[in-house]
Every structure is written in structure tokens, then in C-alpha cells.
From TrEMBL:
Lineage: superkingdom: Bacteria
Cellular component annotations (GO), alphabetically ordered: cytosol
Coiled coil: none
Alphabetical list of InterPro entries matching this protein: CHP00725, LDcluster4, LOG_family_nucleotidases
Protein name: TIGR00725 family protein
Amino acid sequence: MPPSHPHVAVVGSGTAAGDLYEQAREVGRLVAERGGIVVCGGLGGVMEAAARGATEAGGTAIGILPDEDRGRANAYLSFSVATGTGQARNLAVVCSGDVVVAVGGEYGTLSEMGLALKVGRPVVSLGSWDLGEHVAVAPSPEEAVGAAFGLLGV
């Protein structure tokens, strides 16, 4: 049975500007408009943009922070969780999502995508790593969110 409020983990670069930032913001907005909850790493870049899009649309954004300082959380989160686990928090981010959408990103994003696949979470790539048959590749935020919800059967 599909979740009633799907949690969509949005992962990507901690620094993002221009088109990349706007794509992540649009993903967050679209997730919220479909009744989903955005989960992210809670800091800047793609994480901030997705949280911003979700909360600006009246939705919820949860940040899973790498350290013990909640003061570093971006201003658009509805809730933040301080883990004190550094990059190991990537596992908590992807496990907290029912599906993962990767927007751009670097090696940290690649690790999150790999962890998601390892624990059985479907992954959608929007301008991120193309891992062949293991991920759904989407050319736009609309198609990425559509694919994410489709993979969950909602």
C-alpha cells in the first residue's frame, strides 16, 4: 500500500545556484503540492532549495543534519534533526525517504544514491549521476517528481 504522505528524500550538492538551485526548488514545490514531505540533509545548496520550495508551497521539509549544531540548519526547514554523525547521516537521509530524487551533485550525492539502492529505495536522477538501469533519469523537475511518485504507486 502506498504511503499517504510520501517522504521524498532530495539529495544533491551543498552548493547550488542558478538553474540547479531553481530545479531543486521546483522539485520541493512539486513534492509539497502532491502531499509529499521533503527530507534533505538540512544545509545549503540543493538541500536549501528543495526545503524552500516545499515550505513556500505550504508543505513540510525535514532536515537531517550532519553535526550536533541545529543552528547550521537552513531557514526553510519545518523540522531539523541533529545527528552528530557527519557524512554518515547520508544513510539517515535516504532511509527517511520512500524514494530519492538526486538533483545535480557530486560524490556525496553519488554515495546517497548508492546507499538508497542498497537499502531498496528507488532513485530518480535529475541532472545527476546516471547509473543505468538502476535509476530513473528525468529531464525536468516535473518529470522527476512524477517518476518518484510513480515509483511509489501514488
